[in-house]
Structures are given as structure tokens and as C-alpha cells.
Amino acid sequence: MNIIGPSGGLQGLRILVVEDEAMLAMMIEDMLMEYGCEVVHASRIAQALEMAATETVDAALLDVNVAGAAVDPVARELQKRGIPFVFSTGYGAGGLPPDYRGWPTLSKPFQQEELRATLEQVIQVSRAG
To answer: Using CA of residue 92, residue 93, residue 99, residue 105, what is the dihedral sign?
Structure first.
């Protein structure tokens, strides 16, 4: 895994994006690529769970509801592996899985700068221990 430089930044980080809406996934990928990230994408829970368990990633962005299925199992796997993640939801804070209330969350639609700042924050907190 890469380390965020002293001035922050996401350059060179590998980010897992779990999002079932193709247009939104492409927009998020474009945003992250502008920051120099490599993006791996999953559009279904089974695929996301496999990637969360096996891929080398620095962080993840998880849609709360993926094609009608809750993302909780993916969050648990990432947490088990010590990989920081952020939820994204159009349902507001009340849409978060019960075990993750208060977890870093982006409300859809979000801006590119919000995405960057939130990912940097969770990665820095994770690396600080």
C-alpha cells in the first residue's frame, strides 16, 4: 500500500469503488483518476466481497445499497483487513447500516473535492493507527 505524502494527496493510491449505477461509477472513477488514483470497480455485492477479500487496495468507496443489496458484508471484510472506507448514499445518514452509523459518509450527489477530502481523512486516520 502507498502512503499519503506529507502534503496529502491520493496520487498512486488504489481505490475500490462499489457502485451499481454505471454513470455514477464512471463519474467517480474520472474524479479519482484526476487525483492520480487507480480504480477497481465492482457493481454487485458478490463481486465487491471477493475484491474486498483479495485485492490490494488502499481505500474504498461503498454505495450503501448495491442493486438492492446492503453493502454491510463488504464493509466488514474491509474492516477485518484494516482497509479504510467511506460510504456513499442518497438516503442520508439514516440509510447507513446500523453497525456503521457515524462512519464517514458522502451524501449523493457529492463534489470531487468532498470525495478527495473524505478519502484522505479516512486514510490518514487509518495509517495513524
So the answer is: positive
Query: How far is residue 106's CA from residue 110's CA, in Å, rounded to a whole number?
Result: 6
What is residue 93's DSSP assignment?
A: G
For residue 28, what is the domain's CATH number?
Answer: 3.40.50.2300
Q: What is the pLDDT of residues 34-64, one digit of tens each?
A: 999 999 999 999 999 999 999 999 999 999 9
Per-residue DSSP letters for 23-75? HHHHHHHHHHHHTT-EEEEESSHHHHHHHHHH---SEEEEESEETTEE-HHHH
Q: Are 83 and 60 in contact (CB under 8 A)?
A: yes
Query: Is the pTM of the predicted complex or chain greater than 0.85?
Result: yes
Helix (H) or strand (E) holding 5: none
Say if residues 15 and 39 touch (Cβ distance below 8 Å). yes
Domain of 88 in residue numbering reads as 14-128
